[in-house]
Design goal:
This protein has helices spanning about 20-25, 70-75, 115-120, 125, 140-145, and strands spanning about 1-5, 10-15, 30-40, 45-50, 90-95, 110. It is of the alpha+beta class. It is elongated. The two termini are about 30 Å apart.
Length: about 160
Amino acid sequence: MAVLILNTDDTALHTVSLQHAIGMLVRKVAVVEAAHPDLVFGSFPQPEVLRLVRYVKTSFLYSRVPGWTKRGVLKRDRRICGYCGERAATVDHILPISRGGRNTWTNTVAACHTCNARKANHTPAEAGMPLRLKPFAPSRSQLMLPDRAVEDRAA
């Protein structure tokens, strides 16, 4: 379970694990903003949202594109396969790694296992599998939104 961390000005910073969130409460660097009503973790309510006690300057976070991760690609693409539109559980490299492709936002797309296996070591054109979307580098704020809220896609 992920816990959302808010800055003192209500800006969403990132999410952390429940264990990390409890550690933040123990160190008194954050307070519970929202918690599950009937669940506790030790002596703490099980948090859903924490607010930092001191303001953290965040301009450095937004001055560059977030680092590439498989989880980030799946979130950016809303776990929808870029080839067939079905539920995606993995990431496909548009230009395969074996042919010089890299782990970048614009070279990867969410894919279902069937399409990933069918495309194999080919480009989408070679496999006759056109992409349904154009991969893009998301902003940090797009990656912080809950999965169901990431509806706006860059063209």
